């Protein structure tokens, strides 16, 4: 045998799986098709700006992050807990009243937060707050939109804030995602203050990789997985590796390459990254557009933020980094740069003539489609000695990917011991 376990894929799930196996005393070899670790969590360094491959944030309240990540070493730069709401006539900052007391009056007195909606939102979230953060999931589930209707959440808070915010988080504007999945994410948003690592989001998988005794083999796609009498055999261009077991920690879209499982559907988004010499009017908050009649964005942008205001390390001193996100399930998800700029000018009420486009990421496979009911998290067996891990085996998030990887590591250890 060349090693005890081969892990295919060095995204968060594969890396945490390898780490768990290593801690359990197994020898592990990780194969990664790409030129760096991280999978969907990568950062491009462009002229001193850190542009994550698709805007995303790290929530330190995730139990998996609290347990397995050295968040202090990442130097998390936190966003404000709230959002700036842009309507056709004005902008309003809505923020967590305890974390940002200076915005408490504006938040509680805003027309976007009627008392009836705040009560309905509390009703909607309450079942999750009473549950343990991890463990068994409620049997009852519904789509997000059905659950909002059932809770009576039908007013301005939903129309101007929640629907738009959540569509950006889920890369899904249809409202068909599992309500229990969204409740989990909202609960962690309420408990934590998400932010960005000093060196960019890729610092998170790099930290996990740095703890592995054997370096991840980059640029080494697994081409084939065979089951043998005493384990598995994985072919790569560099040769064939034999091991007692394997974990496939590839993304949902790649499952069919190495197994007889179908590829799973995903939601996608795009992120535009601009540099600006002057600071646009905004705080360290996400901006949401509620200018369309009846709610929601009037243009292609579902959220935007001056990233460097929350995370100064993302831009060289004296310059500013702005992200704008569009959704691929919308007809204007692939809007041209000129359209995106026009939208940004409306949102920030400022010209973008001196803004320079740094890069534009089209992330087709952002998150697995997660319709109700939300399943219990579990690695899936494929053959005697191979398991599947990844966010699609738990729920689409950093928490889901890390937990799934960890569970797969524990399962393989038990399998080999048995
Ligand atoms: C734009 C965007 C925004 C997001 N926002 C958030 C957020 O704000 N908060 C949050 O919690 N989550 C967010 N997520 C989700 C989170 O990043 C993912 O759930 C998580 O990173 C998935 O990790 P994974 O290991 O399951 O899969 P992946 O990251 O997809 O890893 C799979 C790995 O397998 C490799 N691979 C595939 N085939 C092979 C092969 N044959 N051989 C070798 N290697 C192979 C791939 O190259 C990849 O590195 C976001 C994701 C994106 C893309």
TrEMBL record:
Residues 400-418 have a biased composition (Polar residues). GO terms for molecular function: oxidoreductase activity. It comes from the Bacteria. Residues 395-418 are annotated as: Disordered. Residues 12-410 form the Amine oxidase domain. InterPro entries: Amino_oxidase, FAD/NAD-bd_sf. This is Phytoene dehydrogenase-like protein. It comes from Nesterenkonia aurantiaca.
């Amino acid at each position: 045998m060349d090693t005890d376990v081969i892990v295919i894929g060095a995204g968060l799930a594969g890396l945490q799986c390898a780490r768990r196996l290593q801690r359990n005393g197994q020898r592990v070899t990780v194969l990664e098709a790409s030129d760096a670790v991280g999978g969907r969590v990568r950062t491009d360094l462009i002229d001193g700006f850190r542009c994550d491959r698709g805007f995303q944030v790290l929530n330190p309240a995730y139990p998996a992050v609290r347990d397995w990540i050295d968040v202090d070493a990442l130097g998390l730069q936190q966003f404000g807990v709230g959002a700036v709401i842009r309507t056709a006539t004005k902008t309003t900052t809505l923020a967590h009243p305890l974390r940002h007391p200076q915005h408490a009056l504006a938040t509680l007195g805003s027309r976007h937060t009627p008392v009836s909606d705040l009560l309905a939102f509390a009703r909607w979230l309450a079942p999750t707050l009473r549950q343990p953060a991890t463990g068994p999931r409620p049997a009852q589930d519904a789509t997000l939109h059905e659950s909002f209707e059932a809770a009576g959440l039908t007013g301005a808070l939903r129309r101007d804030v929640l629907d738009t915010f959540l569509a950006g988080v889920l890369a899904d504007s249809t409202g068909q995602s599992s309500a229990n999945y969204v409740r989990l994410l909202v609960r962690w948003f309420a408990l934590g203050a998400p932010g960005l690592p000093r060196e960019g989001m890729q610092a998170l998988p790099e930290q996990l990789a740095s703890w592995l005794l054997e370096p991840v083999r980059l640029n080494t796609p697994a081409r084939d997985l065979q089951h043998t009498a005493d384990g598995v055999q994985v072919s790569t261009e560099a040769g064939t590796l034999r091991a007692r077991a394997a974990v496939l920690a590839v993304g949902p879209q790649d499952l069919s390459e190495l197994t007889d499982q179908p590829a799973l559907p995903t939601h996608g988004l795009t992120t535009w990254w601009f540099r600006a010499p002057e600071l646009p009017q905004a705080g360290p908050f996400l901006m949401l557009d509620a200018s369309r009649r009846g709610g929601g964005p009037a243009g292609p942008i579902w959220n935007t933020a001056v990233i460097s205001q929350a995370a100064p390390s993302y831009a060289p001193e004296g310059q500013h980094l702005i992200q704008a996100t569009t959704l691929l399930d919308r007809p204007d998800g692939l809007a041209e740069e000129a359209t995106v700029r026009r939208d940004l000018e409306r949102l920030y009420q400022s010209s973008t003539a001196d803004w320079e486009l740094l890069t534009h990421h089209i992330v087709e496979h952002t998150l697995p489609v997660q319709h109700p009911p939300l399943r219990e998290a579990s690695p899936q067996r494929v053959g005697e000695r191979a398991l599947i891990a990844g966010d699609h085996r738990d729920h689409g998030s950093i928490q889901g990917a890390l937990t799934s990887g960890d569970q797969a590591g524990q399962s393989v250890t038990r399998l080999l011991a048995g």
